[in-house]
Structures are given as structure tokens and as C-alpha cells.
Amino acid sequence: MADTFGSPAGGAGDDGMVDGGVVDGGVADGEVTGAAAASAAAEADAAAADAAVAVDPLAQVTAERDEYLDSLRRLQAEFENYKKRVLKQQAEQVARAAASLVDKLLPVLDALDLATDHVGDAETDEAKALVAASGLLQGVLAKEGLERISPLGEEFDPNAHEAVGQVPAAEDAEPTPSGEPRVAQVMRAGYRWHGTVVRPAMVMVEA
């Protein structure tokens, strides 16, 4: 009885152990296979990442070239702007110096005008030389941009004329189109330098 019942029990026990071993062995093999697959996937991902990070040498050289060209263009533009700024400053300095010189020459021109207006005999050599010198100086300055303002008989222009007095108008004098009085006498000539009035003409106007 003991052998009869013991043997099946022992068999059942052996089968249970074998079955357990199979089950345990199956689970272990599955875990190893899953780990291997995960490792392979990780390696594949790393390889793909390395491939993505890797830069084509030609593309890298091209990018560096473009960067250098952009820097060169910016530097060239800055240099061109610098040259323009320097040239503008130099031109302004020359213009200021010329205007200062012209301003200093105005009393000389006034003296020549006064001398030629009050010369005694215009046919003398001295008078002719004085008139020639005055005309020569006026011509040289005119070529450089100095314009004489002598508006005798013209309409009064407050932008270029300075009225210092009035004289009676002639009876047959016609009114000017603008209604401004007419210049009857020029007391002192005015001047423009490159279109800008540096001194208005001193005039007498008709009343």
C-alpha cells in the first residue's frame, strides 16, 4: 500500500519539479531574449544618433565659407559707410572753410565797390586798373560759387534784401505783381554762396 501510493506521489512530485523547471526555464529564456532585443534596439538607436550627428565634410566647409563671406560682406559694408562718412565730413569742413574765407573777403569787395563808385576820372590808368582788379576778383569768386546780389529795380525780396529806408516812387511807377515795393537804390551789395544768402543786400525801396 505504501509503495503503491508512494510511487505515484513520488512521480507526481517529480513531474511537478520537471514541470516547474520547464516553466522556470521558459521564463528565463524569455527574459534573456527580451534583454538582447532591447540591447540591440539601443545599439541601433545609438548608431542612428551617431549617423545623424555626423556632418558631411563638404557641407561643413560650405557652411564655413558662407559664414566667412557674410562676415566679409558686413566688413565691406561697414568700410564703405566709414568712407562715405569721412568724405562727407571732409566736404563739410572744406565748405565751412570756404564760407569763412568768403565772409572775410566781403569787406574787401565792399571797399572795391566803394572805390570804383567814387573814382574821379574813369579813363585814368589808376581807375582802369582798379576796375579791372575788382572785376577779376569778382569773376574768380563767381566761378567758385559766389553770387552778387544787386537788385536795383527789382521787387523787394525779404529773403535776400534788407530795407533800410524808403524813397518816393515815381508818379508813373507801376506796382509789382507781388505787391512788394520796388528797390530804388542799392546801398550795399549782398552775396549768395552756393545758393545760400550769406549777406542780404542793403537797399532803399519805393514808398
Give me the secondary-structure topology.
Blueprint: H1 2-53, H2 57-117, H3 125-144, E1 146-149, E2 161-167, E3 183-188, E4 190-193, E5 196-199, E6 201-206
Parallel strand pairs: 2-6
Antiparallel strand pairs: 1-4, 3-6, 4-5
Helix pairs in contact: 2-3
Fill in the keyword field for this structure.
alpha+beta; disordered N terminus; 3-stranded mixed beta sheet; 207 residues; Nucleotide Exchange Factor Grpe, Chain A, domain 2; single chain; 6 strands
Task: Give a description of the structure.
Helix 2 (57-117) packs antiparallel against helix 3 (125-144). The chain has three helices and six strands. Residues 1-27 have low confidence and may be disordered. The chain is an alpha+beta fold and 207 residues long.
How much of the sequence is in beta strands? 5-15%
Number of strands: 6
- The unreliable regions are 1-27
Order of helix and strand elements from N to C terminus:
HHHEEEEEE
At a glance:
Helices cover 64% and strands 15% of the residues. It is an alpha+beta fold and 207 residues long. It has two domains: 60-144; 146-207, Nucleotide Exchange Factor Grpe, Chain A, domain 2.
